[in-house]
Amino acid sequence: MPFIDSKITVPVTPEKKEKIKSELGKAITTLHKTETYLMVGIEDNYDLWMAGNKLDKGAYVSVSLFGNASSADYDKMTAKICGLYEQELGIPGNAVYVTYHPISDWGWNGGNF
Fold this sequence. Notes:
- It is a single chain.
- The longest helix has 19 residues, at 71-89.
- By secondary structure, the chain is α/β, with parallel strands linked by helices.
- It is globular and about 40 Å long.
- It is 29% helix and 31% strand.
- Strand 3 and strand 4 form a beta hairpin.
- The strands form 3 sheets. It has a 4-stranded mixed β-sheet with strand order 2-1-5-6, covered by helices on one side. A two-stranded antiparallel sheet has the order 3-4.
């Protein structure tokens, strides 16, 4: 039950959103999850500031995960996310923040896992 929510400063075309969604679907296996229940949110043209300066190109990516993963797996996932956003949107890794939120109770379809 992962959810990857991205807030991105640049405009993202529908084609790029589809590509990013697909690549995140592949990357989620790094955290021992599948795309089957993956939900992805992409909010573009989002205002972000880092160190008091507005970012022309930047992203905040929040990964919520039912259960937990190892620090090594989170590190690999961060590398994949940063690489993807640099390749697809030209956002450098030093302007991407990624946070992880392990969750013990997750609801879906009228019940909890």
